[in-house]
Structure formats: C-alpha cells, structure tokens
Design brief:
Layout lengths: L1 H17 L10 H5 L11 E15 L3 E14 L9 E7 L11 E13 L2 E6 L5 E7 L2 E7 L8 E10 L7 E2 L6 E11 L2 E7 L10 E18 L4 E24 L17 E9 L7 E2 L4 H10 L4 H4 L6 H7 L6 H15 L1 E2 L11 H7 L1 E2 L1 H14 L3 E7 L17 E8 L2 E5 L19 E5 L5 E5 L6 E11 L5 E9 L1 H11 L4 H9 L5 E9 L8 E9 L4 E3 L2 E4 L21 E2 L4 E10 L4 E5 L4 E5 L4 E10 L2 E10 L3 E2 L4 H16 L2 E5 L1
Length: 674
C-alpha cells in the first residue's frame, strides 16, 4: 500500500511539472522551444491561452460597473506573426460634453519572453510602447506593441477595461491563428437579463454552460433624526442579496478562421458570443423591456439631434443649389448635379458614423466631414430640390452583419433616392462613386431606409446589374515568334470603380510597369486611359504592345495561346472543400473579342473546339467561339457570373466549372507551314 501511495505521488508530481501553467509570468522553456503548431503547422502564431472574465461590481453612487478582464499568452513562430505583438483596445470616450459614460483601462502590463542560451529572458512592456489614439469624438483606442519581438518568442499581457455601460461587446472565440485554450466567464446580476447567442454563420460552434450563484453588495444611506430644532444626520449600512447568472466556456483546440479566396468579409463567419440585453428589472421598480424591433431602433436614431435634425437644416446651401440647378428640370440630372457638387465641396475625413461629427452646416462651410455630415447633407439637398430622398443606415463589412435590432448594428449612412419606381443609391464620401456605385465596404447585405414620417424598411445593397469588362485584342503573329498589336479595354460599373480606386495616384509609367509585370518579354507603349475622373462614364484603356517569344516552335509547327499574356494563370479555387461562400461582391460579365493575323507562310493545323458551359442553370455561363477567316482568326469569349454569392454547397460544381474555363482559355492554336 505504501509503495502504491509513493507511485501515485510521483506520478502527480511528474504531471504537475510538465503541465502548462497559465498564470501570468509562468512561461516554460517547452513553450519557448516549440517551433511550429502541432495541429496547424502553417500558423505564424498561436494563442496558447486566453482568459476573459466579465463581471459587474456595485459601487456606491455609481451603481453596477462592468469590468472586462483579459489575459492572453501568444506564441510567435516566425516573422509573419510579428503583427500579433501589437494589440488594440477600443473604448467609448466622449470628447465633447459629459464623460460620465467613458470607459477606462487599468492594470495593463505585458512581458515578452525569449530563450537565450537555455535561459528565459524577460522584457517588460514600457510606457513608450503604449499609445492612445482618438478614432472620433466618441471612441478612442489604446494601442501597445510588445518589446524585443523575435521568432519563437512568447508575449503575454493582461488588462481590465472598466465601463459604466451595461451593454456587453461581442465576445470573440476565433482568430486568424489557432487558440489552444480559452476560458471565458460572464457573470451578470439578475437585474440585467441577457440572452446568449452564438453567430449562426460560424462553422465552429463553441459549447457554453450556464449556472448561477448568490452574491450580495452593501450600500450606505443617510437620514435626519431628532426634533425640528435639533437635527443630526445618521448613516446606516444595508446589504442586498441577489442572484448572479453565469455563462461559461472552457474550450480547447479552437481552429483559426480559414482564409479562402473570394471571401468578402471573413469575420462575418467568426465564432463569437453575442450577449443581448433583453430587460432591466430592479427591486420594487417596473420592468424596463429592452428587446426591441428595427422600427424602434430606427426611430431612436432618427430622433437623435445629430441625425434627424440635420436633415431639416437649410439656408447654408440654398444659394449654391439654386444656381446649380438653374434651368434644369430632369430629376436624374438634378440629382447628379447635387451629388457631384457635394463630392467636390466636402471631403471625407475618413471617419465612419451615422451621426454627424461637425454638423452639416459646419461641414459644408469647412469643406470636411464624416460620412454622416456628407450623406445627410446630400439627402437634405435632394429634398430641397424636390426629390424623394432618404437616409439609409448601413453596417460596413468590418462592422459585421447586424443580427439583432440594436443601434450598434449600424455604423454608416448613405442616401437612397426613389425615382421612377426604383431606388438609386448614393454615397458622396469618395470621388469615384456614382449613382448605384457605392464603396465596396457598404455592400453588406441590407440597409435600413428611414423616411420623413420615421417609417422604415430594408433595402438590398447587393448589386444586381453586371459590371462589365470588354477586351478588344488585335495582333499579328510574326515569323520571328513575336507578336505585336493593340489592346482596348472598357470597364463599367463596379469594374470601373475598382480600377479607378486601384490606379488612383499612379503615373502612366507606373501603370505600364504593372501591365508588364510577370508577362514575360512584354513591352507596352502608347498607353492611354480615358474618363478616369468622370465616374459617370465607362473607363477606357488602350495600349500597344510587342511580345517576344509569343509563339512556341516545336518541330515545324507553331503553338500560340490566342489570349497571349491575357490568358488566366491558374484556378484560384484549389481546395477540395470550402467552408465559406464564394463572394464576388457584384455580378461579373467579361467579354474578349480577339482578331489574330497569321504569320506569313503559315496556315491553321488545329483550332480549339467551340465550347459552351453553364453553372447551376443561369447562375454562370461561359462561351468560346473561334473561326478561321482566310489569314485571320476570330475568337469570342464570354464569362458571366450572374449571381455574386456562390454557396459552399455548390463549391465542388463551381470549382469544376471554373477549372474548365481556365483550361479552355489556355488551349493553344497549332499552325503549320503552308
């Protein structure tokens, strides 16, 4: 029996000596010596441990105060993981007026651990590595970067955010890197009733447990005692017992978010916990229900003086708009004149928001404002011109898809104009936007339109009209195996918008360099781009080219790709399985018209076969038509993606469809001597 006891004791000691210790400062050599993640060897870093505790503490004179305590230990495997040494903490902070609802951070400390000659060295986070930045008048960010970051190091930090607000921010389980272990505890007093919801779009579903416990707090009160002539103040102490509701998660092996091609916003699929506040019920007070509807949310927003009242402000633009619209009667022409006037008059300050920063009149006078300053001003001007315009509340892609009716579900506003039984969407914050051409960040499912009478409805933001690229490629094949010719491109709608955004501030020489990059011995000349600044027109691009070694000679035959350097390189969809939908953002229609003059002394030996492909009925289509006309070859290729979102259930079918397109466009023409 004694020997069994000794054996059990030794086994326990052995286990304790090898088990990970997740207390702050207890980093082990074994953790530092790890060179790659055992389950995800491609990971640049990993969260070894994360602990998050959210609780409410009662304070005399303040009531319940929320405390969010975070501790995180991260292993950095290589240089690509160095970004994980920088952390951002966003907090509410009103820079104007009362700061009673401001959030504060305290207890911030951090250490970087490295292994040097078999010994663990520590570098503490210093004050010069901590920065505070103001995002806008309502938000500030504390940013810190850990010191002495090296491959193989470990960083850990902890802090507590204290908030007078009872709303709980979304709790994120998944990151772009694996999370080995996560412990979460959310403790809320019975007076605040929350509903715990998990993101329904996430592939990883964490397990939660719920329980409760009893707790108490004490508070002091004072009252006067004695007669009318002789009074004294007496203090008394009271205790209050209450129930604490607990939500917990103790998770291991959380997989990273998988970065796949054509995922428009990966974080819409992130596993997270949403704590929805349903009601507040204090003792001896009526219930305050908070579960609401989108109609109530939009009414609250409209009644905000920094929103609805801004639409009624006039006088600051009347003279300018009257002069602008003099002699114009066409409604769409009026709208475009006002839209372009706002774009040129007021520059965006890079701040998002559905409430104004400066106010519309000041923004107009100063020539700068946030998204609400600009687009609420646009709505007001269109109404002044007699047009049916209303604001549309939007959640940008980095803000996620609004799942619950809360004001935080929106962080942006655009303009919607009803004209001829259709809705025209307008955003004047960026210089390359146009009617129904919004910044890509705004194309996030649905927006909420609010009318003058404060009624509201959902408006689809997803584009339905195809964005086109038409390519005209004309070239002559030469007997020295080179090719020379001209390319003309026409881009419309979002294809034109994206092209303008990407190429803004580039010189012609830089654009030529981009065209020639990774294209073999391609030389581009006489490059020209038209309508670049006029977003109402298609974008036109043209250039001449000379391509050495455009033809492959094998024996006495010549092999050439009819698309030359415009041939697609590879299929971006390589994975056998896919977790998230393919999101092209907008429908796409590409067409290539190619005319090829054969080299002297050669005729066609073999042409690719004409082909027509379909994907899932009418959701996608591909046609390839080639014909010989004397010494000329004529080729027409059409690619149509009519549905911008391809569900993961259809991935295998779409992957095959796309692969066949790639292979067909890569087939070569075979020529022989006449």
């Amino acid at each position: 029996m004694k020997n069994l006891f000794v054996l059990a004791f030794l086994l326990t000691v052995s286990y304790l000596s090898t088990a990970q210790d997740f207390r702050f400062g207890k980093v082990s050599k074994e953790e530092l010596m790890e060179t790659s993640h055992p389950d995800f060897p491609e990971a640049n870093a990993a969260v070894l441990y994360k602990k998050q505790n959210i609780r409410f503490i009662f304070r005399q004179g303040e009531g319940f105060v929320q405390e969010n305590e975070v501790f995180e230990r991260i292993k950095i495997y290589n240089k690509e993981g160095f970004d994980l040494a920088t952390h951002l903490i966003r907090m509410y902070s009103n820079s104007e007026g009362s700061t009673a609802n401001d959030e504060h951070i305290y207890g911030l400390k951090g250490v970087t651990y490295t292994l040097v000659d078999g010994k663990i060295e520590e570098d503490k986070l210093r004050k010069d590595g901590i920065f505070e930045e103001r995002t806008n008048k309502f938000w500030k960010t504390t940013k810190f970067t850990m010191p002495n970051i090296k491959e193989g190091c470990i960083v850990e930090y902890e802090y507590t955010v204290q908030s007078p607000n009872i709303g709980i921010d979304d709790i994120l389980f998944q990151k772009m890197i694996p999370v080995n272990k996560l412990d979460l505890t959310v403790m809320t007093p019975e007076y605040f009733q929350y509903k715990a919801l998990l993101n329904p779009k996430a592939a990883y579903v964490p397990k939660l447990s719920t329980s409760s416990k009893n707790d108490s707090f004490s508070y002091s009160s004072k009252h006067d005692v004695g007669s009318n002539t002789v009074k004294r103040t007496q203090f008394s102490q009271s205790n209050v017992d209450f129930r604490v509701d607990i939500v917990q998660a103790n998770l291991e092996g959380i997989p990273p978010l998988k970065d796949e091609e054509f995922v428009d916003n990966l974080f819409n699929y992130q596993a997270k916990l949403i704590m929805e506040l349903n009601m507040i019920k204090y003792p001896n007070e009526p219930v305050r229900p908070l579960s609401t509807t989108w109609e109530k949310v939009t009414k609250i927003i409209y009644d905000d003086p920094d929103f609805g009242s801004q639409l009624n402000k006039k006088g600051y633009y009347d003279t300018d708009v009257d002069a602008l619209l003099s002699g114009i009667s066409d409604p769409m022409q009026k709208a475009e004149m006002i839209f372009n006037h706002v774009k040129s008059k007021v520059k965006w300050n890079d701040y998002h928001g559905y409430t104004v920063d400066n106010g519309v009149s000041k923004a107009y006078k100063d020539g700068v404002g946030n998204s609400a300053d600009i687009n609420l001003m646009l709505v007001s001007m269109l109404r002044y011109a007699g047009l049916d315009a209303n604001p549309i509340l939007v959640s940008t892609k980095n803000n996620g898809i609004p799942l619950l009716p809360t004001r935080s579900g929106f962080n942006y506003v655009i303009c919607g104009m009803s004209l001829d039984n259709s809705m025209v969407l307008l955003d004047a914050t960026q210089k390359f936007t146009a009617p129904n051409i919004l910044p890509l960040k705004s194309l996030n499912w649905m927006g909420r339109l609010i009318r003058k009478d404060e009624s509201s409805e959902w408006i689809t933001l997803t584009p339905t009209q195809s964005s086109r690229e038409t390519v005209s490629l004309n070239f002559k094949l030469n007997t020295d195996l080179s090719a020379a010719g001209k390319v003309r491109n026409q881009f419309t709608n979002y294809q034109a918008f994206v092209k303008r955004e990407r190429n803004d501030n580039f010189s012609n020489d830089q654009l030529i360099e981009n065209l020639e990059r990774d294209k073999g011995e391609l030389e581009v000349s006489n490059f020209e781009m038209l309508n670049f600044k006029d977003s109402s027109q298609p974008l036109l691009q043209s250039y001449e080219f000379n391509l050495q070694n455009a033809i492959e000679e094998i024996g006495e035959k010549l092999y050439v790709s009819p698309l030359l350097f415009l041939s697609p390189k590879e299929n971006p969809f390589k994975e056998d399985k896919r977790e998230y939908p393919i999101d092209f953002v907008y429908p796409i229609s590409d067409k290539y018209v190619v005319n090829i003059m054969l080299p002297e002394g050669y005729v066609v030996d073999n042409l690719p076969q004409n082909t027509k492909l379909e994907f899932n009925g009418s959701e996608g289509g591909f046609t390839y038509l080639i014909q010989e006309n004397g010494s000329m070859l004529q080729l027409s290729i059409s690619v149509d993606i009519n549905k911008a979102l391809i569900l993961s259930d259809h991935y295998e079918q779409f992957k095959k469809f796309y692969q066949l397109m790639i292979e067909k466009q890569s087939e070569k023409i075979v020529l022989k001597k006449a």
